[in-house]
Each structure stands twice: as structure tokens, then as C-alpha cells.
Amino acid sequence: MLSGKVILVVDDEPDILETVKEILEQCQVETAGSFASAQTLLETRSYDMAVLDIMGVKGVELLQVAVGKQIPSVMLTAPALTPDYILKCMELGATSYLPKEDITQLDRLLEELFAIMASGGSARSHTMKRLELWLDEHIGHSWRDKYGKLWE
Description:
Strand content: 15-25%
Largest sheet: 5 strands, parallel
Strand order of the largest sheet: 2-1-3-4-5
Structural class: alpha/beta
Order of helices and strands: EHEHEHEHEHHH
Protein name: Response regulator with CheY-like receiver, AAA-type ATPase, and DNA-binding domains
Shape: globular
InterPro entries: Bact_response_regulator, CheY-like_superfamily, Sig_transdc_resp-reg_receiver
CATH class: Alpha Beta
Organism: Desulfomonile tiedjei (strain ATCC 49306 / DSM 6799 / DCB-1)
GO biological process, one term: phosphorelay signal transduction system
Number of helices: 7
Helix content: 40-55%
Number of domains: 1
CATH topology: Rossmann fold
GO molecular function: DNA binding
Number of strands: 5
């Protein structure tokens, strides 16, 4: 499913970029370590998927560029994984979210997302089902009342 896919990975941590390249070895992975270089790549090239860090590289702004170019995007983040960020990114068109602590599962997640998108399914529903337990554990069950919009 991933063989031959062209993936842009943006993160200001070089070790994360190297880790993702290893995990996605069957893909053609291009990397950027800054907002400016990522913006240039997004505006001048075509990608099957973008994997964007939120912090350090203005990932939300890059998401807007990617969505404008119709590039599905996974938000890869550690400290910014809160209902507010999830809602903001989903409203802006993010395809999915992945906590950095789960980075070793990135290849599996991308395979699932490509399969869902190919079948016309909902990547947002997939994301929320996947994150539901994490949100319950880290934030508490009350997030569902306040952020019910995530399920629409």
C-alpha cells in the first residue's frame, strides 16, 4: 500500500525526520526541518501525504497550505495533542493525528488512511475512534461534552 508513495515529513527535530525515514523506507520520503523549506516544498511539489509537526515549524499554517493543495495531512505531535488542537486541525482539514509516542506505528496508520481514502471512507471517524481512549486517559471523559463537534 505504501510502496512508491511520496511523503513529505516536516519536523524541527532531525532525529524525528530520520526515524520517520526509516519507518517509511518503502516510500519516497522528503523532509523539511523548517516552516520556510516546508512551505516551498508544499507549494512546488506534489505529495501523496504530508506528515506535519505542530510545534516548531508552524504546522497549523503548513496544514492550511497542504489542504489548499489537496494534500492529505497527518499531524504528528507531542505537547499539542489536546482537544483544542485536534478540533482546530480537523476543522482546517487534517486527515489524522498521531502522537509522537506512537511514531513507530506511522507506517500502519498511513496504510490504513490510504485504504480508507481509496474506499471513500471517513478518515476523521477513523482518527477519532483511534484517539478516543487516549483522550479519555489524558484529559478525562468531559472532553466529549465540550468537543462533541469532533464527531460530526
